[in-house]
């Protein structure tokens, strides 16, 4: 069972929580947030063009990019642009090029769309953590993730994230 901070919000009906305070346990996610902060250089958020894969090579297996079509409020507004190899393994398939609407069951997809929409609307990072089931009839896996908005002009049009398995307590 996940331990949650009092500030965390449960993403019902799942055992997954949203932490707007960004209290990361995993050092890799703190590194990714620091990288994003450096790239934004005083703006609300960096552009996709500011992100250089060569600068985050050790993170790439667990990184994902999701295109967000404004207003970024429903499943149809999100398409997976890229999934790292560790995520393909965790999910048991590659979602690259697919929409959330077409390839993830309704409840998990709707919850994910809500969280991505919040990142887009607020233009700020979020931490997500908890226990999630990734493969049908598979066990719950403790995870932690950072979701980072990327912009073109004034709006957010992409979310970059990193999702890692958490060590057992």
Would you give an account of this structure?
With about 170 residues, the protein is of the alpha+beta class. The protein has one domain (about 10-165): PAS domain (Beta-Lactamase, 2-Layer Sandwich). Helix content is about 25%, strand content about 30%. The protein is built from four helices and seven strands. A seven-stranded antiparallel sheet has the order 1-2-5-6-7-3-4, sandwiched between helices. A hairpin with a 6-residue loop joins strand 5 (about 125-135) and strand 6 (about 140-150). The relative contact order is 0.23.
Topology:
Elements: E1 9-10, E2 15-19, H1 27-40, E3 63-68, E4 78-83, H2 85-91, H3 100-103, H4 106-122, E5 126-133, E6 140-152, E7 155-165
Order of helices and strands: EEHEEHHHEEE
**Integer count of domains:** 1
What CATH architecture do you see?
2-Layer Sandwich
Main sheet record? 7 strands, antiparallel
Q: End-to-end span in angstroms?
A: 10 Å
Helical fraction equals: 10-25%
| CATH topology assignment | Beta-Lactamase
* DSSP summary: helix tally: 4
Lateral strand order in the biggest sheet? 1-2-5-6-7-3-4
Question: What value does the Rg take, in angstroms?
Answer: 15 Å
């Amino acid at each position: 069972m996940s331990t949650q901070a009092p500030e965390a919000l449960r993403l019902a009906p799942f055992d997954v929580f949203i932490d707007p305070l960004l209290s990361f346990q995993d050092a890799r996610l703190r590194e990714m947030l620091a990288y994003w902060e450096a790239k934004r250089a005083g703006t609300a958020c960096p552009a996709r063009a500011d992100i250089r894969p060569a600068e985050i090579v050790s993170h790439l297996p667990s990184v994902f990019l999701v295109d967000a079509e404004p207003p970024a409020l429903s499943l149809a507004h999100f398409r997976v642009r890229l999934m790292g190899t560790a995520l393909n393994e965790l999910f048991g398939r590659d979602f690259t090029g697919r929409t959330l609407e077409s390839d993830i069951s309704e409840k998990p997809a709707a919850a994910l769309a809500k969280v991505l929409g919040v990142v887009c609307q607020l233009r700020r990072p979020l931490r997500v953590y908890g226990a999630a089931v990734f493969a049908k009839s598979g066990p719950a896996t403790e995870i932690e993730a950072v979701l980072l908005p990327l912009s073109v002009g004034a709006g957010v049009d992409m979310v970059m994230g990193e999702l890692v398995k958490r060590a057992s307590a």
